[in-house]
Write a structure and sequence with these properties.
The structure holds two protein chains of two kinds. Chain A is 71% helix and 3% strand. By secondary structure, chain A is mostly helical. Chain A has a single domain, classed as ABC transporter involved in vitamin B12 uptake, BtuC (Orthogonal Bundle). A two-stranded antiparallel sheet of chain A has the order 1-2. The radius of gyration of chain A is 19 Å and the shape is globular. By secondary structure, chain B is α/β, with parallel strands linked by helices. Chain B has one domain: 3-Layer(aba) Sandwich (Rossmann fold). Chain B has a six-stranded mixed beta sheet with strand order 6-7-8-3-9-10, with helices on both faces. In chain B, helix 3 packs parallel to helix 6. The longest helix of chain B is centred in the C-terminal third of the chain and has 16 residues. Chain B is globular, with a radius of gyration of 17 Å. The two termini of chain B are 32 Å apart. The chains are: A mainly alpha, B alpha/beta. At the A-B interface, helix 6 and helix 7 of A face helix 2 and helix 3 of B. Bound molecules: adenosine-5'-diphosphate and magnesium ion.
Chain lengths: 292, 236
């Protein structure tokens, strides 16, 4: 492998990793605060992808259609998330965990079939938008600009989310509710509203990932299941509830996906699972998580 | 009457814990709930706060029914709970622990608002700990932070669940002085204790509980004069 191919492969792996980070961060924040493992989180990501497709194709006549989609599709996904939380999830917090799984699994089917109804079973594509299309020359080597753009988005969201959680009063409230909702509630914090807000934030991140992914992949049914499994792997590797953990886990998974195929091609698909199992054995709380 | 609890019955799932418990607290009073471990003191606080709402009976604050309201709504009406397990948020700094409990849309205010500065005057140690993580505080500091955090919500009724539990005698003495200061400020206080000497020193009236029933109620002066009452009900 030439050095150019090596770096190119690494950048492409990390850029897919960054998109997965956005999804995993949402999954992790929602789980931390609401204690709900949203199985439909990947499907919410897929809805974002279809919204990106429909917006870019309907707005194709105006310049910068993709950027309008990037602005509005995640917001629309967040609103869908808000409706799901208020109308459905809110009813099952006090019930056994099993109800969460049944309800969020039902959402996979409902949202998936809704996409199928509107968009059919084919693949949809979105072209790489100007000005992040083409290649960029760095140190005399040439790389796809969109990959670097995705990496930039991942880093910005990671830093922004970290700052939000650490330095704002909103972040303090979320940390407090995450630690103990009952105490927070008794201190006058409107916990149901925090739940809705956090679920919308997590959905927004999934929607953002869903909008960013199509230019370098395709929009298709079934992408939700592939993505949710990768997100589970990321949060297990990094540590459930840890934002830096999700970031690190996403980079590791991205690189593993990019290079596994060169090391032992037959095992490429198994590498992430093998790593997850190793982590579960030697450090069950993940690389950057906290032990219980 | 500031708080009027009438014949409440509270359950945890199928276990019936409180049996027709009634109590009344006037504005400015300090009242204590005495009883051994497991008699239902915490459950009374949880019932008032809306964390475990009673199945029957009524709870009135300034004459308005609060049973059935959510805990955050009850908190905003002026009830502040200092929980038995303290429940400091370990991954918030001392200052953030205080801040999240303040600045909420509270309506009528009788007294001067509690601010971080005012809280620091009452608990100077918290000023030194300002930027430390809540999880790093000692037991006594945690107890002060829990009380301070609840005060930040500007309660008119303070519920203190076993404030002296697990504290060294020196620290209990400090907490006692701080409670007396709050009382002087005009705060109405309902506290629970197993350690009756502490409770009797700070309270005006007492209720003695046994297995979810109120067995005795009266002035603390009476309890001090007739230790046989304590002997009969509490075995001390
Ligand atoms: N979450 C719960 N579920 C079931 N039973 C409980 C729960 N919490 C407390 N109890 C029971 O309720 C009774 C009263 O408990 P509590 O109000 O905590 O008493 P106290 O505060 O006086 O020690 C005890 O018998 C206790 O075992
Ligand atoms: Mg108790």
């Amino acid at each position: 492998m030439t050095i150019e191919a090596f770096i190119g492969q690494a950048l492409s792996g990390i850029s897919v990793g960054m998109v997965l980070f956005l999804i995993a961060a949402g999954l992790s924040i929602i789980f931390g605060t609401l204690k709900v493992l949203n199985l439909a989180h990947g499907t919410i990501y897929m809805v974002g992808g279809f919204l990106c497709y429909i917006l870019t194709s309907k707005l194709a006549h105006i310049p910068g259609a993709f950027w309008w989609a990037l602005l509005f599709a995640p917001i629309a996904v967040a609103l869908i998330g808000g409706v799901i939380e208020v109308l459905l999830l809110r009813r099952i917090y006090s019930q056994e965990m099993l109800y969460q799984y049944i309800l969020t699994f039902a959402l996979i089917l409902i949202l998936g079939d809704t996409c199928k109804f509107f968009f059919g079973v084919g693949y949809q594509t979105v072209s790489v938008p100007w000005p992040v299309n083409g290649n960029i020359a760095l140190w005399g080597l040439s790389f796809p600009t969109y990959n670097l753009f995705l990496i930039g988005c991942g880093i910005v969201v990671f830093l922004g989310l970290s700052a939000l959680m650490r330095y704002t009063s909103l972040g303090s409230i979320v940390r407090a509710v995450t630690h103990n909702r009952e105490t927070a509630n008794a201190l006058g914090i409107n916990v149901p509203r925090v739940y809705t807000g956090v679920f919308m934030l997590g959905s927004y991140l999934a929607g953002l990932a869903g909008t960013l992914m199509p230019p370098m992949s395709v929009v298709a049914l079934g992408s939700d299941m592939a993505v949710i499994i990768e997100c589970f792997i990321i949060v297990v590797i990094g540590g459930l509830g840890s934002l830096p953990g999700a970031f690190l886990g996403a980079i590791i998974l991205g690189l593993l996906n990019a290079f596994g195929i060169y090391i032992i091609p037959k095992l490429a698909l198994a590498f992430p699972f093998m790593l997850m199992i190793v982590i579960l054995i030697i450090r069950p709380w993940g690389l950057l998580g906290k032990p219980e | 009457m500031l708080l009027e609890v009438k014949k409440i019955n509270t359950f945890y799932d199928l276990s019936h814990i409180l049996f027709n418990v009634s109590l009344e607290i006037d504005k400015g009073e300090t009242v204590c709930l005495l009883g051994r471990n497991g008699v239902g003191k915490t459950t009374i606080f949880r019932s008032i706060m809306g964390l475990t709402p009673p199945r029957s009976g009524s709870i009135r604050l300034y004459g308005d029914e609060i049973k059935g309201k959510k805990p955050y709504e009850i908190a905003r009406l002026g009830v502040g709970l200092v929980p038995e397990d303290r429940e400091i948020f370990p991954d918030l700094t001392v200052r953030e622990n205080l801040e999240i409990a303040g600045k909420k849309g509270r309506k009528e205010k009788q007294t001067e608002d509690w601010t971080i500065e005012k809280v620091h005057r009452l608990f100077p140690i918290l000023r030194d700990r300002n930027n430390q993580w809540g999880g790093t505080l000692s037991g006594g500091e945690q107890q002060m932070l829990t009380i301070a955090r609840t005060l930040m919500g500007n309660p008119t009724l303070l519920l203190l669940d076993e404030p002296s539990e697990g504290l060294a005698p020196m620290i209990t003495k400090t907490i006692e002085e701080q409670i007396l200061l709050l009382k002087k400020e005009g705060l109405t206080i309902l506290l629970s204790e197993q350690n009756s000497s502490f409770a009797l020193r700070v309270s005006d009236r007492a209720y003695i509980l046994e297995k979810g029933h109120i067995l005795w109620q009266g002035k603390t002066s009476e309890l001090r004069e007739k230790p046989e009452i304590m002997m009969t009900y509490l075995g001390v």
